[in-house]
DNA sequence: ATACGACCTCAACTTCACTTGAGGTCAAGA
DNA sequence: TCTTGACCTCAAGTGAAGTTGAGGTCGTAT
């Protein structure tokens, strides 16, 4: 009985059901669980059972990802919620406002970069030390090793 | 004689010299060479020797990366130049203009996303099917599997 | 004579967000 | 009874952009 039966309307969901209703792959759901983003209990046959609110959690995760928030950060944010509850409208307001600030900053950085480029297209010097495009230090200070993943698509 | 001697002023450069003068690590230079972004010949002792214009090539690469252009794309662009010459001011103009268009688009996408978020912060429905934040299809159509790396910093 | 520093190659590791595959369990339907 | 389909675990692969390490060579200075 993989398809929803009206009698089961407020029962917990199997992975397959969660996948179908949330639009993410089963493997992704496993993965999210392994990262602590969602939780489940097990049926007698050792199958995952998810409370319905997992759908809202996944919705929040997906939107945050579109905003460019890394999974680890999302996980942390979700853990700050009282007893790990699924975000209410109030919670969402707080979280999304913080993420919006992030997004705003990223847009500002890119915009500055573009404006710098504007002037450098005609110049073309690219001198380390004189070209604003080659000298990130005035507008960018936070930095660390390794590549960072920030994908606005998806 | 690792340090520059005035008599060698227009000789080719060793990896170490290129690293010092361009500000990128030796390992990165090896890596760029393996990807075909730069080329070298070998000395009698099998050491790399780079023509001076490698510095300008690396400058172009680094700026393009700040603009969010993936290395593979940069490599392609550099290969379109007549007989693989190092970009002249004219070339730079053409390349950077193309990359600026890309950047503009990315900024536009993020801005739209932010505006969508604006309205959704108060709402919080996140419904798959109604919430504009959950439905990328109207503003975003290009897509493929796997994560994409787009880092505005560095 | 030997130590030192700069160089060489090649393989493996890193992060992120997953996906793919191999091999195994479980319950229901023909 | 057998097959099908959904599920399970755990390991390994993907891609981008490098970094790190082991083991070896070269050339010069002491």
What does this molecule look like?
The structure is a homodimer of 154-residue chains. With 154 residues, chain A is mainly alpha-helical. The first copy, chain A, has 2 domains: 9-87, Multidrug-efflux Transporter Regulator, Chain: A, Domain 2; 96-153. In chain A, 48% of the residues lie in helices and 3% in strands. Chain A has 5 helices and 2 strands, in the order H-H-E-E-H-H-H. In chain A, strands 1-2 form a two-stranded antiparallel sheet. In chain A, a hairpin with a 5-residue loop joins strand 1 (41-42) and strand 2. The longest helix of chain A is centred in the last third of the chain and has 35 residues, at 89-123. Chain A is elongated and about 70 Å long. The two termini of chain A are 32 Å apart. Residues 1-8 and 137-154 of chain A have low confidence and may be disordered. At the A-B interface, helix 3 and helix 5 of A face helix 3 and helix 5 of B. Chains A, B: Residues 12-80 form the HTH merR-type domain. Chains A, B: This is MerR family redox-sensitive transcriptional activator SoxR. Chains A, B: Keywords: 2Fe-2S, DNA-binding, Iron, Iron-sulfur, Metal-binding, Transcription, Transcription regulation.
